[in-house]
Specification:
Blueprint lengths: L4 H9 L17 E3 L22 E5 L19 H13 L9 E5 L16 H24 L4 E5 L2 H14 L8 E5 L24 E3 L3 E3 L7 H4 L16 E2 L7 E2 L5 E2 L5 E4 L2 E4 L7 H5 L13 H25 L1
Parallel strand pairs: 2-3, 2-4, 4-5, 5-6, 7-12
Antiparallel strand pairs: 1-3, 8-11, 9-10, 11-12
Length: 328
């Protein structure tokens, strides 16, 4: 699901889909979270709303279309099962950015998980169909809601796939880049020089670039490590730099499936292009001992770390804006 070469393939096909009919994002029912369509699924995590009036968060959820018996390439945004799955993953992922700005989460015609391994037989088209929805949702957001506010882009896995294209289409070397606080792109392989003018951010309070990571059990290297991860962009999502180790004591918190926060749960190691963690200290720990690929937990493993970091970056962005205004 993290194939780097997909990006080049997507870009080559992108213009072939411009005429395709996409969802109507003036319809509030096509948004999971937006002004006028606010969900309670992330409100429980908001205690400080001071930044919500200043910045926006545009979140794209990961692959939830997993049914092996379903032969469709894309799922309708009106499909109730997809909506329920999207709500659940949004609760455990998008909520990490809940205090960093107003939340915008569009439903989209998501590509089936098989698309990533069947590009030539329909997968590429399915992924571009999904991206067209995300692109149009973002354009609607810009036209009707943004009004010059700073922007955080946040996603995971397929969501990060689409956000990479969104960065190229709307931000990279373009005027809108001035409004970019940070693009969080976990769960997908990204080259450090993937973008022309958007850098990898290597300190906790930097703005105007992207961060990314992929999480595995300590000392585990997938068979595809050399192709997918080695030499790729990666930061430590506890220290937010390229530190080789962030100790367990520095880990702010893992949002577990029981909706409880587990702090100081594991050590975090940055190796070449990937993140290794020790076995998390959580309930049912014995079940996680055998787990080697933590892709599904790329966000909620570092939920509280992301939560604090997003606020720190927005505050840093705001301070720079005030400083620039004073110097004019």
């Amino acid at each position: 699901m993290r194939h780097l070469f997909l990006i080049c393939l997507f870009i080559l096909q992108q213009f072939a889909f411009n005429s395709q009919v996409s969802a109507d994002y003036s319809n509030l029912d096509h948004w999971l979270i937006a002004p006028g369509q606010t969900s309670n699924i992330h409100k429980q995590f908001i205690s400080d709303s001071s930044l919500i009036s200043y910045a926006d968060v545009f979140y794209v959820y990961p692959t939830v279309f997993l049914d092996k018996k379903n032969s469709d390439w894309n799922i309708s945004i009106d499909d109730q099962e997809q909506r329920d799955r999207a709500k659940n993953v949004t609760k455990f992922q998008a909520s990490a950015w809940s205090e960093a700005g107003r939340m915008f989460v569009p439903f989209y015609s998501q590509a089936h998980v098989r698309s990533y391994t069947n590009l030539e037989s329909g997968g590429r088209d399915a992924l571009m169909t999904a991206y067209l929805d995300v692109k149009n949702a973002f354009q609607y957001y810009l036209d009707n809601h943004n009004q010059g506010r700073p922007i955080i882009l946040a996603g995971h896995s397929q969501g990060s796939t689409h956000l990479m294209l969104l960065l190229k289409d709307f931000f990279d070397g373009k005027e809108l880049q001035k409004q970019l606080v940070c693009a969080y792109l976990p769960g997908f392989s990204v080259k450090e020089d993937e973008f022309k003018t958007i850098p990898l951010l290597t300190s906790a309070n930097q703005t105007g670039g992207f961060v990314t990571w992929n999480t595995f059990k300590r000392r585990y290297k997938t068979k595809k490590y050399n192709d997918w991860y080695k030499g790729k962009a990666c930061i430590n999502p506890v220290s937010w730099d390229k530190s080789n180790l962030a100790s367990r004591k520095k880990h702010r918190g893992f949002l577990f499936s029981d909706e409880k926060m587990y702090e100081q749960s594991f050590n975090t190691h940055l190796v070449d292009g990937a993140i290794w963690i020790t076995t998390p200290k959580v309930p049912f720990r014995s079940l996680s001992i055998t787990l080697k690929d933590y892709h599904i937990g790329d966000v909620n493993l570092f939920w509280k770390d992301i939560h604090y970091n997003a606020a720190e970056r927005v505050n840093s962005f705001r301070e720079k804006g005030i400083e620039n205004a004073m110097n004019k």
